[in-house]
Amino acid sequence: MNTVRTAAVVLAAVSALALSACGPSEDGASDAGSTAPSAGTTPSGAPSKPSAAPKAPLASATPPAPSASSPATDADFDVFPCSTYDVTFTAHLAEPTTSSYLLKITNSSGKACRALGHPVVTFGDLDGQATQRGEAPGIEDALRLEPGESAYAGLLGGTHDGTGSTVDSIALTMDTESDLEQKPLTASTPGLYVSPTVNSVTPWVDNAEDALSL
């Protein structure tokens, strides 16, 4: 009787060991597999990997074209008014009855200059200067003289009416629209009669005919 009981106990123990050695049931294995994260997914709550920063655009190799509104350069901005240091001067009798003289200046410098306004003419030892006759262009439109080029003006002394005086020379300076000191240029004018009310001089022009007809 003890032997049979002992054998039964041993058999039960062996059966229990066999059952514990087996793995989890197929249902348990299936459940475990469904909850394990796959290799290609990110676990919930983990920070995502930041995307790559966008590349900066490449700089253009061609510089931008200059703006069309850029101010243009004035080609005459450095052409200054003619002074007596830039020119030579002559005076020729044109009409004895009216004591008319043709005044001529020639650019003797090595650069261009502008003959502005009217010549400033004084008569020998007489006080005052010749009055201006005719309208002169503004400085932007004043006559431009290249080296060797000439400008002309007409000087009128007036008819001999007994009210004036006779002089043998005149002196000329240029209008420079500044206080630039100039050395007066002189010319001989034998017997030039100067009327105190009629004498006058024209603005500088580019030809002798216009100078005597203004």
From TrEMBL:
Keywords attached to this entry: Signal
Domain called DUF4232: residue spans: 82-204
Keyword Repeat part of the UniProt annotation: no
A Pfam family assignment: DUF4232
Signal sequence region: 1-20
Biased amino acid composition, Low complexity: 40-72
Region (Disordered): 23-72
InterPro entries: DUF4232
Keyword Flavoprotein carried by entry: no
Source superkingdom: Bacteria
Protein's name in the database: DUF4232 domain-containing protein
Native species: Streptomyces galbus
